[in-house]
Amino acid sequence: MATQRHCAAPVGDDPGPAAVHAGRVAPPSTCWEAGAGGGLIRAVPASAALVCHGGSGSAYGAFVAGIPQLATTGPGDRRHNAGLIAARGSGLAAPARRITAELLTRLLTDPAPAGAARGVSGGTAAMPAPADPAPRLETLR
User: Fold this and answer.
1) Using N-to-C axis directions, what is the helix angle for 111-125 and 56-65, rounded to 10°?
2) For a pLDDT cut of 70, what percent of the chain falls above it?
3) Taking the C-alpha atoms of 32, 90, 94 and 61 in order, what is their torsion angle to the nearest 10 degrees?
4) 135: Cβ–Cβ under 8 A, 6 or more apart, which residues?
C-alpha cells in the first residue's frame, strides 16, 4: 500500500495488515516527479492500494495504476474527489481522523473496490493523450 508520505508493500503472499512493510519514500512535494527516486510515481503501480489526501494528481495516479484508494475528505476539491471515488466504487472515503485498521483491511481485502479500480484504469487507458486533440483545437479559430 502506498501513502503520500510512505510506501508500504506486502511481504509474502498474505495481503493482511500484518504482512505490510512500511518505509520512507519521498517528501510529499516530490512524490509525482519523475526523478523523485522512489516516490509515488514508482510505488503506486507496484502497490495493492493507495491512501491519499484525495487531490486530483494522487487520485488520477491510482486510477491509472488500477488500484483501489482510500481518499481523505479534506477541504476544497479533495472532499469532492473522495466522494466521487467512493461513489464509483473504486475506493473508500473517510476523514483522516476516522481511518482505522478495519477500514485499511477492507481496502486491501474487499474485491469490489479493486475490481472497480481496474475498470476505471481501463477507461483511463482508452482516453486520448493530452496532445491528441491539439491539431483539431488549432482549427477552431
Assistant:
1) 90
2) 71
3) 0
4) none
Segment 96-112, tens digit of pLDDT: 999 999 999 999 999 99
Amino acid present at 109: T
- 34: Cα within 13 Å, side-chain hemisphere: 0
The pTM for the full model equals 0.70
Return phi, psi of residue 58, to 5°.
-65, -45
Q: Which residues pair with 23 in a beta bridge?
A: 7
The pLDDT tens digits for 35-78 are 444 456 677 888 889 998 898 888 988 998 999 999 999 898 99
Say how far apart CA 106 and CA 92 lie, in whole Å: 9
Strand 20-24, strand 6-10: pairing: antiparallel
Written as one string, the DSSP assignment of 72-94 is E--TTHHHHHHHHHHHHTSEEEE
SS3 56: helix
Cell 482505522 sits at which residue? 100
Q: What grid cell was written down for 141? A: 479559430
